[in-house]
Amino acid sequence: MGENNKQPAFACRQCGECCCGDKGILVTPSEAEALAAFLRLTLEELQSRFLIDSPLGPQLATLNGACVFLADNRCRVHPVKPRICREWPFLPALLKHADEFEAAKEACPGLAQGCSHEEFRLLGKAGGHTIA
Ligand code: SF4
Ligand code: SF4
What we know:
Order of helices and strands: HHHEEEEEEHHHH
Bound molecules: iron/sulfur cluster
Distance between the termini: 29 Å
Oligomer: single chain
Number of domains: 1
Strand order of the largest sheet: 1-2
């Protein structure tokens, strides 16, 4: 019973914090196509309104210090958001490096402070999570 009462290792609070700042969310060609279709835009319109160029390729633009698609702490393109957004916080770097995981715990209130890196890795392998 004690285990059932334990705070889950990850439960998104939908605070929108992971969508703030300049995260450099890269967008692949297929993700750009999905975004454009979802927003009923041409690829050119998507590019000019919502993407910026970077040395690594196109990435999501920011507006007022947050992703251009963040509105009221919710993602306006949730069904088609880029892979990195869907995977957060179970990103390869966090699964691999305990120090990066600890830093993420400071930034993401959805990660239980008592969660060990091993628990996080096991949850990541299990695959199930949702984010804002
Ligand atoms: S696409 Fe959605 S989930 Fe990804 S950073 Fe932007 S608002 Fe957040
Ligand atoms: S994943 Fe974390 S930082 Fe992002 S919205 Fe959920 S609780 Fe907030």
